Queue: 4 jobs
Job 1
Amino acid sequence: MSLLVRSIGELVTNDPSLGDGSALGLVRDAALVVEDGRVAWVGDASHAPATDRVIDAEDGAVIPGFVDSHTHLVFAGDRAGEFAARMAGEPYTGGGIGTTVAATRAASDGELRANLARLRDEALHQGTTTIEIKSGYGLSTADEVRSLRVAREFTAETTFLGAHVVPAEFEGRDDDYVSLVCGEMMKSALPHARWVDVFCERGAFDGDQARAILLAGMGVGLLPRIHANQLTHGPGVQLAVELDAASADHCTHLSDADVDSLAGSTTVATLLPGAEFSTRSPYPDARRLLEAGATVALASDCNPGSSYTTSMPFCVAVAVREMRMTPAEALWAATAGGARALRRPDVGHLGVGAVADLSVLDAASFVHLAYRPGVPLVRTVLLSGEPQ
Amino acid sequence: MSLLVRSIGELVTNDPSLGDGSALGLVRDAALVVEDGRVAWVGDASHAPATDRVIDAEDGAVIPGFVDSHTHLVFAGDRAGEFAARMAGEPYTGGGIGTTVAATRAASDGELRANLARLRDEALHQGTTTIEIKSGYGLSTADEVRSLRVAREFTAETTFLGAHVVPAEFEGRDDDYVSLVCGEMMKSALPHARWVDVFCERGAFDGDQARAILLAGMGVGLLPRIHANQLTHGPGVQLAVELDAASADHCTHLSDADVDSLAGSTTVATLLPGAEFSTRSPYPDARRLLEAGATVALASDCNPGSSYTTSMPFCVAVAVREMRMTPAEALWAATAGGARALRRPDVGHLGVGAVADLSVLDAASFVHLAYRPGVPLVRTVLLSGEPQ
């Protein structure tokens, strides 16, 4: 079965050899042909070959599916009370991340699966077609493995984040926990994970611990990524570049050397503006990274503590408003950028050969994702050419 | 036909005599009975009377429908290019508001109606059940009347805003245009409008012109509201209070005297954070107004130039993040506050006797409107008790 997707509006391909030759490879009055779930042909609608089926986007823009390369979707419970207290500037005496760890451990597999399915569907209907999902609210071998097993039911991009924080039962024994993560926990996580991640931050894991954890993961075949420089300047970004991590995530507090290192590397700087929005924190300096030549991705960081949004359109709008990305830079970062952050050449663009993951918008241009903030503009989502 | 809406989550009534006694009148494990489109009973679900039909919100929160008291939905065309240039910090040589005036004048009635219907539906499905709609892109007697006629097909809350800007053909003859607005245009608008509004701002209409226009409208029976103190300190707020206008809208640049005047009046301070979001401008100081005792409303300002969002949940989230409103204050402002800004005691709350306009959320608490920014959380909308 072949499918033709037609738009008299604009088609964003992220293939600069197509259309207007920009990074977005923008084609107007375009058609895209899907065969066997992949893009088989892209070009001027008047030259499109005949196909079995047609989806007419009319004047709606067509964009590659969002690649959300950073989420924490395996959890139970919510922390609305903590959020409301933070927004009111009040001290909060609850348990923070520990609350989510306790709720996650107490939940059944079915509860974790149902919550994840709900959030995955929510993301999908807002145009997210590839999603990375981390563990990190289990923090025991059994609970981390269970989290990854459930995550793997929904995505190939699973990340072992046993090193999210040191759990309460290891208080004062950080190094014992690091040993557990590097040993038994890593080995048990391995069959269910593609990536290994660590929260390298004051109060979580320092540079030496983070290096040990990432090297242990790499030693058994996991690929590294890292939570780096979110709350303070720290060694995370340098470590990411040293280990050729696919991505350094957050990048809120960067030295000139950090920016230069990222620009000279294949490590993507993944920015997570939902976290700054929801914690009322200063945003990362996207322009500094872009102007230095670093590759920038946008992701949601969806989690119940610091960024409980699944909405990549929202992240695009905030990136434009607050981080001074252009709408084109923000869309590229949320699609092609995310794909680079996951080292996935098959997604995040609509060049020939790509997986036919795309969205049709209720808008004439992708610019509307930022121009019309908060409005649900995703009309139709295709996964491998199949309408969802 | 009687209807029962049940929620084991929370029901926001905005009636402080109900539930927890807060301004939101929050009832848990609640039921609400609708008869003849109005709320007939509210209370503990275990005491609810029998009804013909039941809507079970399960653990979803139930909130009053949003009252969006400030929109400019009668127009044609869009200004995505102008938006993108502004976000990139580039000069824009296009026509600004004049572009929309030209497109609106050139559009057929059917085109204006279709665009308005699309935006009205978009707003409705995000929980807006009462909407004010202004003219102001016609700027000739025929085009203003036509705009109001189309708007009146969608809402009783129509506002004559012939005094939006001075149109190009009256350049250098402001007072002639004011005379036209106060005379023939006002008289022709009257059958189609409830309100009269003026953009009182440097570059638009000064305090004396604004007073003349509002008094002319009031003289024929229209009720006053005013665009005040958006871009600069100006006389708008004082004029609003002097004339007992229902609302002074924007309120971004206020003196202490302005704040005191609002607090001592029945004029609502309507804040429009979508405009500051989309123009990258400083936000109004909501806390200063709230702490002085002024009544605050939130509205979308939906228009194609400076705030092209229909999403009241988005405005709530931004009000919490940027204007330091609590989630409870923001929800109240977007519902009961909007109703006061339209002097409509029958909407914006769910006390007995209110119109049964409400939304069921895909969330256990109204807090999620801010906690989960950008996520479409409105599951079901009822207008006068009828699911939409």
Job 2
Amino acid sequence: MQTFSIQEIVQASRRVKPFIHHTPIVSSSLLNQWLGHDIFFKAECLQKIGAFKMRGATNFIARSIEEGRRPKRIVANSSGNHAQAVALAASLFDIPATIFTTESVSPVKAAATEYYGAELRKFPTRPEADQAAQEAQTEAGTVWIPPFNHYDVMAGQGTAAYEALTELGEVDAVFAPCGGGGLVSGTLVASRALSPQAQVVGCEPVAANDAARSRRSGKIESLDGPPATIADGVATPSLGDLTFPLVQQLDDFIEVEEAHIIYWAQWLQHLLKLHVEPTSAMCMQGVVQWLKQQESSSRKRILVILSGGNIAEKTSRQIWQDDHLSQLPSL
Amino acid sequence: MQTFSIQEIVQASRRVKPFIHHTPIVSSSLLNQWLGHDIFFKAECLQKIGAFKMRGATNFIARSIEEGRRPKRIVANSSGNHAQAVALAASLFDIPATIFTTESVSPVKAAATEYYGAELRKFPTRPEADQAAQEAQTEAGTVWIPPFNHYDVMAGQGTAAYEALTELGEVDAVFAPCGGGGLVSGTLVASRALSPQAQVVGCEPVAANDAARSRRSGKIESLDGPPATIADGVATPSLGDLTFPLVQQLDDFIEVEEAHIIYWAQWLQHLLKLHVEPTSAMCMQGVVQWLKQQESSSRKRILVILSGGNIAEKTSRQIWQDDHLSQLPSL
């Protein structure tokens, strides 16, 4: 039986190390001055393929090989960061990969996925792509890598917080965005081990709050349809049966309005000089709301996992539509 | 008599080292694959204050102190990166600084300058601000730091290329943007010493081509008025008498159209995940045009100095107005 504890993350960290970037932790002294707290950003936007997803996909494959279950072919269905992560991770282990996606995939994502050596199979609709992926994995030796609901993927994603906390030592709080729950689950387990006093907080758009609703109802709730959020990295319809119990254990969970996501996307790009995607910027509003709830005003040390930096061109246009830089951040 | 050779840059490098960031060199494997060459970006957008200007201001002050000419007060007139560089550099040496600027300075720039501890004096117009700065420097012990036309500033700016080439070894070409000519002058001298075979190339917007015209006419030409370019970092009206002779020695000089500046601003932000300002992105079009002129198609190693990452909110809006990510880069 598989388990999920800090041991899995320590093992994952050892496994993925040769294949991923050790991303930097960055800060803005200006932001820290304005808020009166120290905020450390783990810059996974500088990770290979531009997102933390590289960690989970790499750990999944590396563990399979380590345990003598080397896949003959790898398949995944995604139009986003997971597809690119699987494509690149598979190529690093010289395993052929096929990505099942829709015909609407952007040329730049398609080009990147193919550059990483994967075959890209496009279908008119998402259900058709999912169906084809499901059929493909019935072939002997073909392995499907799930986007979040698997302990090896969750452990891989947890290596980002593990790396960061190994460098930073203990902190008062750790923030991560929550889509399917893979990143936030791994972050929780890593944080409990390396910074046991830290509050671990998940963040989600109000407009895609299936995880918040699941925490309230005690069962996995789903979005009714594609959510109207700029934070496309967390537009996942529902948590998985492995991630949900961990999401329930988070110390706090904050739902963020679209306007605040956009505000922080502008500000974090400006202050950090990094191409921070809305999904990551969202957490900064979580930090502000959490800080306002704290009784003690003592200076806090806060870790934020900046999950990625892959921003569609039309999303960048949305981010910069109005001026938010004239309104300085404060608590 | 002051001179300007690699010795000054080596000295500057030693002087500024404790006060500045050693910025990373970044690459995009995808871009390198598409173009068939290896392009190395020196990420001065991750420098303190978000631009290379920190190097020149720091070297200027550090050298004054080293030679027993410690300023009692430092003044500068700028509404851009130079103001913030002087403000921060002065504070690092515990010297009071006053920045003369216009009332139209953006709140975020004003807040940053004041956070660095400088007094900000605002005037209705730029000539009034310049006049006040000129008067201020007549006081005993008050020193004005020029934005580019000074060997200590030029040597400081040259430390970016010096650092990069020390790491990279020899390259085939080095690209830098040209405004007042401080960065490109320092880059030329550093490159001649560390990579003598390298072509050193300056880049300028067609819409602000005073330096290109100066190279053609053999005397310093000025812009007629504020230029219509998105590359605000190189909107300087003219070269200085110290930078002009060095700009004349550049191996090539490329004038870039606005549409190409915007194209590369989108692409470099996307590929490098860095907040690259248009002035820096401009050089990538210079690289493409230069590569097309080369007779041999052998794989080239190219260094590009990404000068900074300070982008006004309305400039970001301009950058992302149209979609360029659907058109993949190629030669």
Job 3
Amino acid sequence: MHNIKLTIEYDGTKYCGWQKQRVKRFGFKKKKQKLAIQEAIESCIKKVLRQKVNIISSGRTDSGVHALKQVANFKTTSNIRPHKIKLALNGNLPRDIRISEAESVSLKFHSRYSAKSKVYRYIILNQDHKSPFWVNYSYWFKFPLDIRLMKKAASNLLGRNDFKAFCASGSSVEDTTRSIKRLSIANFNYFSCNAICIEIEADGFLYNMVRNIVGTLIEVGRGRFIPKDIKKIIESRDRSLAGPCVPAKGLFLIEVKY
Amino acid sequence: MHNIKLTIEYDGTKYCGWQKQRVKRFGFKKKKQKLAIQEAIESCIKKVLRQKVNIISSGRTDSGVHALKQVANFKTTSNIRPHKIKLALNGNLPRDIRISEAESVSLKFHSRYSAKSKVYRYIILNQDHKSPFWVNYSYWFKFPLDIRLMKKAASNLLGRNDFKAFCASGSSVEDTTRSIKRLSIANFNYFSCNAICIEIEADGFLYNMVRNIVGTLIEVGRGRFIPKDIKKIIESRDRSLAGPCVPAKGLFLIEVKY
């Protein structure tokens, strides 16, 4: 038995997310179901290895969320070398999913349980017009944002906190305490656009946590909240006090650390 | 009469280029003609200003070529302020074309004749797998390239030369002498990809000149040509001695200087 670890890059625009969505049984019209990234990869592996496998990822990503280095693993009895598996998968996968690495790892390795921390990046396009190149990869926010205030606010989020106020309502997770190890905010100018790049590293993330944090930081940047409000929001454990959830398309899973 | 100067950003993937292509009259099947970027903008201006205008760009770009700061101008009797024109156009243009600036300039200004130099960027994705994010914005070259040799070769292209060997055969231009003011080659790593970015500034470009130069530099980088060969190729004025023309999708017009 071999345990194969894959590092995966994907443009999430056309997918329903990492995992297959359960079809809701009510309603008359059947909307065409979007494919899940996991399904696309599993069906390719089946074609290449002639074995049905179950791949485990470091965690799900939502519809529209992208990944630069998602990690997933699967167990197989096939003796095909990881490098050959990578080549064969990349020859068969749709063009918006690519395997950047494939390696054989210890049988104990589990993409989700072995992960020590994950890093997400969120891109805000902060200029008066949209950009043709960033439509699917950023959230366009046209009003000026004070990045200095956003940085100040961010420092209040660092460390071990109960992030219930930043967790999507309806989530069934009981323990909402997480540790944010790093939260950086920087201007960047690439492809002649003005953007703000927010990176968050934590030992784990609640449902919609990054997008709710970014939405809250934007409220600070535009002057609706002051940096000190962050502490009150954390203490309240009340989702309705934090800022709105920003769109999925600006979010990238950029690293999983083991 | 006002002369309006537009700075335009576009993703050229779905267009036949800046200018409308002449339909060839032979053959049976009529292929669906792709839209030209110029047409898309002119029809929007007509809608916004209720006037038919003729816009003049700094130069055509081919099908698939992108622009970060293409410049074009048009004359109009309309008194609508440039800032309002920009907003109205951006509200009506397809999402892969955006106006980043609109300003009123002297009546003498001509996007093409007033240009002093233009800057193009070419992106080579140089890694063993394609990237979902760069499919339409780079040329994927999977074999290793020696960037040190490419830089050496590039220095032989600088200055005033007859670039006939780098001009698409069949071009009717008589004077093929141009001045390359700057040619930079650099590695860059963005969105977790390994790429090489080549930027060329010149007082003017022959048809396919950038793409033929890049194709020739790749031949140097992979070891088929040595840097010294460049001088011989220039002197030969023979297109067949230079490297191949690389795909349009890696090319960006990034600036027009006046």
Job 4
Amino acid sequence: MRGERQRERLKVVRQRLKKEKISCLVVTKPANVTYTTGFSGGDSWAVITGRAAYLLTDSRYIEQARGQCRLCRIIERRGPMAEAAAKLIGKLKSVQTAAMEKSASLDTFEALKKNVKCRLKSAAGVVESCRRIKDSDEISAIGTAGRIAAEGLKRMRRRLKPGVSENELAGVLDFEIRKLGGRNCFETIVAFGSNASRPHHEPAARRLKKNDCILIDFGVRYKSYCCDLTRCFCLGRPNALYKKAYEAVVKAQAAAIKMVKAGVEIDKVDAAAREVIAGYGLPVYGHGTGHGLGLEVHELPVVSKNIDGALAAGEVITIEPGVYIPGKLGVRIEDDFLVTKSGCRVLSGIAK
Amino acid sequence: MRGERQRERLKVVRQRLKKEKISCLVVTKPANVTYTTGFSGGDSWAVITGRAAYLLTDSRYIEQARGQCRLCRIIERRGPMAEAAAKLIGKLKSVQTAAMEKSASLDTFEALKKNVKCRLKSAAGVVESCRRIKDSDEISAIGTAGRIAAEGLKRMRRRLKPGVSENELAGVLDFEIRKLGGRNCFETIVAFGSNASRPHHEPAARRLKKNDCILIDFGVRYKSYCCDLTRCFCLGRPNALYKKAYEAVVKAQAAAIKMVKAGVEIDKVDAAAREVIAGYGLPVYGHGTGHGLGLEVHELPVVSKNIDGALAAGEVITIEPGVYIPGKLGVRIEDDFLVTKSGCRVLSGIAK
């Protein structure tokens, strides 16, 4: 990450820390470590104070950290992470109370508490809330991930013929994504026929038959950022029920997209999609209508029922209504959008 | 999973619960949910009492859960997980105190605490300790994962020629693994030349040159179980330093393997490998010598310095010493072993 970008992010995080009266935040969630330090490896923590940012890592990652973290002081731990963090915090004169991210595990919290001399409290969603609004580098990375996804899917479709298995097709897609310079950001879902009624179906040995319908839900990570897409199509001619479900989902997604705009209440976006499905007399999906995405495939905001709050410009969200009829079919269409002042911009523009 | 196998596992977990005076365990770690219920999907919890086992899941997974969880009562939650779990626990008359796994996050714990009427405490490593000793189904799954890994690597090596990139080679390996019916259980590491000095190098655009040395660290998941392997080889002739490092690592691994046997203290296995590397006058690796593996790529026991305790028959561990010289080379060799009464049996038998 460029130095100035890193500086801007740390500035926003520090404003938030000041607001929440936190003088020292112990960052343990990998995506938050990446956000605050630029480090994309694993098993590392960040410690952020008003003055400095530290990356605590180990010998496996030290070369990588030196290359990625321009604004951080890098500390190579040799013993347990909690001991290394406690030692560092102990040296920070101005810190009376440290806060650990609430996404940390109970045993991680206890280990640090046991070792640290100052007070230790927990803090929820500090970095996550800063991550909600994306900067231009982040939007650009998500957009590139979306373009890799589009091209990968196009290349995969050439292999679509009767006899291919779900598992093989998922493998082909993943391989094309990698050749294009991306990575999967979650396990690709490929479901043939009635398997698609399980929204998180795991691809297996089932082979494609003539007139089978296909659901593919996949995501690409590019420069640490994720896109998340779902497409449905048929090899041959779908039956009348499938056509109806597909039409309902397309219209439900369009209705929700039409609502998306900075300032709009989130549950209204959700309701717009559900109403269309219900209007078709089809079962309304049990999952949310969408979610934020960025360094994680699922992040803030949640786009679902009973969610307080409104969308803000700079947020990136999915819109993904579906229709599931066990034993018969599953249809879901999912795209990624940048929320703007006047509406939204699609970041995953594939022909459906 | 077969019903009798599931019953045996629940029996072992319940013995442990009784010993620790836990009448109700809330299981949140995915691998522990799989172990106690047979469910291999995500976003689900198990609740285990002396009498019953429950799986709390949502609409996306309900069909899958019905197929996989023979001995569980399956509950489809519609609202937040903590509320659904609290409601269930509230109905269990015999439960005065529930325990949540310590691997759960602080906010997950707080959410349940807020909703549940009984006392809530935390418990460390209950299911993890049961998972240490593998049954024959688990050993067989890890062995199959190992065979898929061996065959996948063999097929990948056909594509090994100057000009191929780290990223492409990783993609080819992953694709072959999938065609063989397995999945990656972590991101494949392919490192050419001096990139191998970073033990967790991320494959990138670097292309293979004549006489380059290659490090590949990868894992296969088969029926939820993992294997974990590292191999190093050269395209052409390695230099004298590389030959020395390779020889040291082979001998270090052999020295550790020779020590492995039920009852042997873990730190002695670790020391055996390190002594060989040090004897060659080479830098001793900063990571552990090995780790347990099963439903997770890293599980108990940890095979490293300063670890109390001994190996037990039925444990499955990696042995993976290495030599890293930044800017010059990285060599690591990793295999998986079943600990037996008289020694060990290799589960990842690839020619090196």
